[in-house]
């Protein structure tokens, strides 16, 4: 899928903020934060896996084109049924079919508590995924919210 111009510009801004040398590369250690800046928060263990996939030669540096390809892969990996279900839920809450747009956090809280009568700490979960504190949930954040599992971190600690 081709990236939209606003996606590329958003990635370029985030990348430039972290390109400390001005050489068109960021430190691999900054990838997690760079992804957060573009609304694609990832768990640390997944970031390490992603780094190993794109950091050719283990240089510890990531070029912009590699970052952009990773962004596209993460943002538009909507081919599976689970991803399509997430897109459908995102659209039902106010987002767009192409995963642009956003969901109002307050609307999401009302629906979870009032319509579904769930007793989860939705405010806390939203605070975790809304990394920019905007009060609106972009698709990457929405996807992370739906994948949240209190047991997931514990499972990764098991030898």
From TrEMBL:
Signal peptide segment: none
EF-hand domain residues: 6-41, 117-152
GO CC entries: myosin II complex
UniProt keyword annotation of Acetylation present: yes
Superkingdom in the source lineage: Eukaryota
An annotated Gene Ontology molecular function: calcium ion binding
The protein, known as: Calmodulin
Organism: Paramecium sonneborni
């Amino acid at each position: 899928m081709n990236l939209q111009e606003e996606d590329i510009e958003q990635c370029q801004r985030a990348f430039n903020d972290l390109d400390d040398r001005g050489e068109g590369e960021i430190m691999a250690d900054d990838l997690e934060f760079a992804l957060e800046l573009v609304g694609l928060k990832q768990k640390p263990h997944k970031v390490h896996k992603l780094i190993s996939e794109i950091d050719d030669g283990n240089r510890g540096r990531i070029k912009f084109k590699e970052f952009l390809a990773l962004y596209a892969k993460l943002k538009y990996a909507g081919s599976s049924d689970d991803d399509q279900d997430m897109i459908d839920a995102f659209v039902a809450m106010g987002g767009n079919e192409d995963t642009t747009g956003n969901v109002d956090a307050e609307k999401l809280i009302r629906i979870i508590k009032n319509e579904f009568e769930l007793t989860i700490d939705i405010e806390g979960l939203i605070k975790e995924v809304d990394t920019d504190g905007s009060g609106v949930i972009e698709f990457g954040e929405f996807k992370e919210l739906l994948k949240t599992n209190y047991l997931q971190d514990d499972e990764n600690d098991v030898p």
